[in-house]
Structures are given as structure tokens and as C-alpha cells.
């Protein structure tokens, strides 16, 4: 049987996901001259959003971890319940066992490579990994994600991953995508979070490096002949590419 794997780059408050990468968001707070907007489902009282969340079942341990994460100084980086459920559904529908980065939806022989640069945030998540019974599936790598991805490629793991979730520093999104495509098997998925970036990708007057980096990866995924692609207006935007 294939050794299915997942790879997770960056910020998700979830079982099997490291925690939060603070660097890109710290830059977001400085010097932009405009308010930070969010489309996270836990930060709104919109009746329709509340209804959607009420219909989406959530693992109890995952819910407690999400609640803990949102109380932290960088809590706005926490992934919403809707996105978490979507990632779980995608992982299970693939029959994935080798991924970055959803341990809760993996079978007993599944493996998560969780990439992060913050021991502070990942230490918040670790007790919940134990409580959720997924700690033994998680291979946490505390270093720049580009280094971990290159190590995986150099170690002969190209074409062996089922799913790669990208939610790390935005400047490197396009680099992460290209390396992820090398790691994925045919039929595997790349999932890119924050693809709408608070709506700034649609504003031609916004030309900072983070917004332009997200525009670049959206454009690349949308025109890449190697994949089938959809951009969804879920939460802060989700881009999904299936490797042909």
C-alpha cells in the first residue's frame, strides 16, 4: 500500500498542524496605512456564517485548540472551522496517509510533516496533539519551510505526497507552490490559504510585496497546465490545485 503523506506549511490551529508563522503577519501590521480586514468565520456575527458553522461538525479537541489559539496575541492567524472542515474532507477523500498537515483525518499509518519557525506557538498545540491521539503521526520541523521541502526532495520523496497545505510567510508562496508540485503524486492536492488576502488582491492600488506574492501564486495556479484549479471565496480565500 502506498505510504500516503501530507505536508503542512504554516499557520493552522489544528490537530497535526504546527501552530502559527508570525513573520509575515508581523510585517502586515507595520506600515500599510490601512486597517486589517478579515473574513475568518469565528470573527463575525453574520447570521449566515453562524448558521454555516452550526451545521459543520467539529472535533471537540480541535475546537478547544482553536478557542485557545484565538486568544493568543497572533490569534487572528487561526484557521476557521469552515476551512478546517474542508481540509479534513479533502484529506479523507484522497485516502491520504502522507500529508502536510492534517493529522486528525489520517489513518493510523498516516504521516504529517509540519513546518513552522515558532517553538512558542507549536508548544501551545502539542498538548492538544497528545489529547487528540495524533502526536505520533506528526513530524514537526522547526526551520524555514523551504529548507524542509528541499530536504524532502533531496531525500528522494518527490512524487510521494498526497496533499500540501500552504499557509506560511506570503513572500515565499510561489516558491512553496513549485516545490510542492515536485513533492506531490499525480492526483495530489496543493491547498493555498489566504488566497484573497482580505480582498486586497482585487485592489490594483495595493502593491505591497505580500499582496503581490499572493497574486503571483494565484496567477500561476490558474494558468499552470500541470493542474486543475479552483479559487474559492471561503473564509480568506482558498486555492486548490489537483496535479494531473
UniProtKB/TrEMBL annotation:
<dbReference type="GO" id="GO:0008757">
    <property type="term" value="F:S-adenosylmethionine-dependent methyltransferase activity"/>
</dbReference>
<dbReference type="InterPro" id="IPR029063">
    <property type="entry name" value="SAM-dependent_MTases_sf"/>
</dbReference>
<keyword id="KW-1133">Transmembrane helix</keyword>
<keyword id="KW-0472">Membrane</keyword>
<dbReference type="InterPro" id="IPR050362">
    <property type="entry name" value="Cation-dep_OMT"/>
</dbReference>
<keyword id="KW-0808">Transferase</keyword>
<keyword id="KW-0812">Transmembrane</keyword>
<comment type="similarity">
    <text>Belongs to the class I-like SAM-binding methyltransferase superfamily. Cation-dependent O-methyltransferase family.</text>
</comment>
<dbReference type="GO" id="GO:0032259">
    <property type="term" value="P:methylation"/>
</dbReference>
<keyword id="KW-0489">Methyltransferase</keyword>
<protein>
    <submittedName>
        <fullName>O-methyltransferase MdmC</fullName>
    </submittedName>
</protein>
<dbReference type="Pfam" id="PF01596">
    <property type="entry name" value="Methyltransf_3"/>
</dbReference>
<dbReference type="InterPro" id="IPR002935">
    <property type="entry name" value="SAM_O-MeTrfase"/>
</dbReference>
<feature type="transmembrane region" description="Helical">
    <location>
        <begin position="6"/>
        <end position="28"/>
    </location>
</feature>
<dbReference type="GO" id="GO:0008171">
    <property type="term" value="F:O-methyltransferase activity"/>
</dbReference>
<keyword id="KW-0949">S-adenosyl-L-methionine</keyword>
Amino acid at each position: 500500500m502506498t505510504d500516503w503523506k501530507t505536508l503542512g506549511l504554516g499557520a493552522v490551529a489544528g490537530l497535526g498542524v504546527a501552530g502559527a508563522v508570525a513573520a509575515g503577519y508581523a510585517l502586515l501590521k507595520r506600515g500599510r496605512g490601512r486597517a486589517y480586514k478579515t473574513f475568518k468565520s469565528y470573527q463575525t456575527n453574520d447570521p449566515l456564517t453562524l448558521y454555516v458553522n452550526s451545521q459543520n461538525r467539529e472535533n471537540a479537541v480541535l475546537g478547544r485548540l482553536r478557542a485557545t489559539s484565538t486568544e493568543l496575541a497572533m490569534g487572528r492567524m487561526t484557521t476557521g472551522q469552515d476551512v478546517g472542515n474542508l481540509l479534513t474532507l479533502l484529506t479523507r477523500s484522497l485516502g491520504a496517509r502522507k500529508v502536510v498537515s492534517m493529522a486528525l483525518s489520517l489513518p493510523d499509518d498516516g504521516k504529517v510533516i509540519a513546518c513552522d519557525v515558532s517553538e512558542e506557538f507549536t508548544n501551545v498545540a502539542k498538548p492538544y496533539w497528545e489529547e487528540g491521539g495524533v502526536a505520533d503521526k506528526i513530524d514537526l520541523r522547526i526551520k524555514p519551510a523551504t529548507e524542509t521541502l528541499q530536504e524532502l526532495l533531496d531525500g528522494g520523496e518527490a512524487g510521494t505526497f498526497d496533499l500540501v497545505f500552504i499557509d506560511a510567510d506570503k513572500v515565499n508562496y510561489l516558491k512553496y507552490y513549485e516545490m510542492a508540485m515536485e513533492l506531490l503524486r499525480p492526483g495530489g492536492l496543493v491547498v493555498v490559504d489566504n488566497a484573497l488576502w482580505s480582498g486586497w488582491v482585487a485592489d490594483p492600488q495595493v502593491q505591497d510585496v505580500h499582496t503581490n506574492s499572493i497574486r503571483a501564486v494565484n496567477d500561476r495556479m490558474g494558468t499552470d497546465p500541470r493542474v486543475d484549479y479552483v479559487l474559492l471565496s471561503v473564509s480568506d480565500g482558498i486555492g486548490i490545485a489537483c496535479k494531473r
